[in-house]
Amino acid sequence: MTDTYTCAACSGTFTKGWSDEEQAAAAKELFGTIPVTEMVTVCDDCFKEMEERRRVAEGIPLEAFRDGRDPFATRPIPNDE
After folding, report:
1. What are phi and psi of 56, to 5 degrees?
2. How many CB atoms lie within 10 A of CB 42?
3. Residue 75, by phi and psi: left (phi above 0), alpha (psi -120 to 50) or beta?
4. Which DSSP helix (H) or strand (E) runs through 23?
5. Which tens digits make up the pLDDT trace of 39-80?
6. CA–CA separation, 54 vs 31, rounded Å?
7. For residue 2, with 0-12 CB atoms within 10 Å meaning exposed, 13-18 middle and 19 or more buried, which class applies?
8. What is the dihedral of CA 63, 28, 40, 58, to 10 degrees?
């Protein structure tokens, strides 16, 4: 196991903050049944930028994130059947 990864979005090299098992569990929680083999790893900054673009595209106001709420958690994830 390597302690670094390359971000699929920005190509930066980063130190892993989670084990592969923790990363797989987090991915399942966020993205449901999409196979991990169909996912890529991105750094925190790129993930936050992607989530912001998603928020804007879906028309979710920034206020929806206040008080620790996650408005994405209530929306169905495509292919999550």
Report:
1. -65, -45
2. 19
3. beta
4. helix 20-31
5. 888 999 998 898 888 888 888 777 766 666 666 665 554 554
6. 14
7. exposed
8. -30
Q: Which two tokens stand for residue 58?
A: 């879906």
CA 77 to chain CA centroid, nearest Å: 12
Sign of the CA dihedral running 67, 68, 69, 72: positive
- Maximum pairwise Cα distance, the chain: 40
According to the model, what pLDDT value does residue 4 have?
93
Name residues whose C-beta falls within 8 Å of residue 17's C-beta, 6 or more positions apart in sequence.
none
Question: How far apart are the C-alpha atoms of 75 and 13, rounded to whole Å?
Answer: 32
Question: Which residues 6+ apart lie within 8 Å of 1 measured at CB?
Answer: 20
